[in-house]
Amino acid sequence: MIEMIRFPGVRTMMKGGYLLATVTASSSFHLNVLQRATAFSPTRITHYSSRIRHHDTTRAYLSTTQLYEQKQKHIVLVGGGHAHLQVIKAFNQASLSRLANADWSVTVTVIDQSDRASYSGMVPGCIANTYTKEETEISLTDLTEWAGIDFIHGRVVDIDFEAQEIRLEAHGDECGSTNDENDSSKTIVNYDVLSLDIGSTARGLEIPGVLDYTLPTRPIDALVRRLDEASDALKENTNVFLKGDDDDNNNEKIKIVVVGAGAAGLELAMVLRERFDPIVQGLGRELEVTVLNSGSTSNLLPDENIFCRMALQDALDRRNVRFVNGRVNCVNQDEVVVEVEQEKDGEMQLCSLPFTICCWAAGAHPHSLSFRLGDSGVALSDRGWIRVGPTLQTVSYDNVFAAGDCSQIEGLGSEESPPKAGVYAVRAGPVLVENICKYLKEEELVDYDPQSDFLKIMNCGDGTAIGFRFGLPLVGKWVFDLKDDIDVMFMDLFRLENLSSLNDKTNDDDRDGSIHVAQYDDAIIRQIDRIDALEAANILARSDDGVDYQEAWIALREMVADEDYKREVLKCFKKLNR
Ligand SMILES: Cc1cc2nc3c(=O)[nH]c(=O)nc-3n(C[C@H](O)[C@H](O)[C@H](O)COP(=O)(O)OP(=O)(O)OC[C@H]3O[C@@H](n4cnc5c(N)ncnc54)[C@H](O)[C@@H]3O)c2cc1C
């Protein structure tokens, strides 16, 4: 039995990232107890202090058994991104009490520099005005509060892996604090088990002018905000975008340049066309959308087969997206300076690519924090990703896990580490949950077995989408409807209104006390009724509005589950397209 003690008069709250305790004279004794028990000081939060709920400003509850008899194991999750969302939900107070045993109990703290997690799969839809910004985000404050675990809104600047200490700059402290990473005023959080899900940043940000004049895709919430500002500026006809007021300039095209011809850049080009076309037409101007491809081949998405690439090219042509091949030399206020290879002699020449708005979608690159952690002792790949094994434990420290974009998985047999895509981060979540629990219980950990390929869908911005799976091009409204269903279903898992109260003793998934390690869509997979292979091929080959996306989804799921069925559908598909 856990005996709860109430400390009357002790007021606690998070302020500027510090846990503040306001104490009346009558309760100074209790503060003393509190201080000794938690080693609490204004700049130091130990794992004990996480028992004090920061959102409860009037009462502090401490568990005597936990503080004085049991050891507390502190799990810290750095980053509340795609990989950690399911971990946060799984490690709620109800399930954590099950994980605890007579010797130890568990507390969990989430640290993120943003208080909202952006779901990138829906961001292009937000740019195309299909979703609101709120629909693409999860409030980490709400989710952690629901789970009854702590949330620190702050930026991790370093980790001492030997001392098991995380050094962070709390939100709002950035202005006041020094740049000295060793500054002792920075907040320290201790951990027993650490999991890193810090995502990635955009490649090439160091190229002169990129940070000054372009809109990078990372952080993704900043991209949406800055595109909103750009739209407003255009609508208001401010001369930030419409330079000059003579006739010549007024007839100039509005030019959007997207740097990067990967899936994210191409999707962005299509949804930007959808978003800005009406605005630009309203100004009586013409919109030009250009993608700058710096790849070694002029083929778009060279890893896809010719059929998929042709379907993609068709989708881009229909939206009048043009291409330029070359490498960025620098970016000036209104032009990208590009090194272009001359056809006649192979010489490189500098060319100007003028823009009104330039989006930077040049692929994923490790955060500077990743390199910092490398200096602090965690092993990194050549490119700077955190090296982990199939259990998602770092190769350097058994009690440090990493998942999602920031990690590179080694030892997957013949498979390489999966690409930097949200789908792999999401699928790593339940494995993290299971392995962190097993690590604490000193059991054998399980391996993450990432799928070798995944359903890639690009939103075209007009209610249709283009996707690729098993080498099949999938096109039409049904492809967007399918994407919408998958994305909304995932987000719904974390919406406060869909989460049942953990205090309610009625038995259901969130309250039964067990820790959930299943993939979020497992339940749906079990509901599948197979469709005949020829019928499945027929559905997948269609692009008209009459296709029922649910049937297409059933077909695709079954193709994943059953190799023979997949072969049969692909055979039928080939015949249909002869
Ligand atoms: C425009 C665009 C569209 C995309 N569309 C898709 C798609 O449709 N499907 C798909 O599979 N993938 C897509 N991706 C890729 C996908 O976004 C990433 O693979 C995914 O976000 C990786 O998730 P993650 O959990 O690794 O990191 P994230 O979800 O990015 O989370 C990282 C978290 O760490 C926090 N953080 C970072 N540094 C610190 C720090 N120092 N201290 C504290 N917190 C920190 C961040 O605030 C963030 O909340 C897209 C990417 C872009 C740019």
UniProtKB/TrEMBL annotation:
Specify whether Cell division is a keyword of the entry.
Answer: no
One Gene Ontology term of the molecular function aspect = NAD(P)H dehydrogenase (quinone) activity
Domain FAD/NAD(P)-binding positions: 74-412
Biological process (GO) annotations? aerobic electron transport chain
Which superkingdom heads the taxonomic lineage of this protein's source? Eukaryota
Cite the entry's keywords alphabetically: FAD, Flavoprotein, Oxidoreductase
InterPro entries according to UniProt: FAD/NAD-bd_sf (IPR036188), FAD/NAD-binding_dom (IPR023753), NADH-Q_oxidoreductase (IPR051169)
Q: Name one Pfam family in it.
A: Pyr_redox_2
Q: Which PANTHER family match?
A: APOPTOSIS-INDUCING FACTOR 1, SLR1591 PROTEIN
Tell me the protein's name. FAD/NAD(P)-binding domain-containing protein
The species this protein was found in: Chaetoceros debilis
Give a yes or no for keyword Ribosomal protein in this entry: no
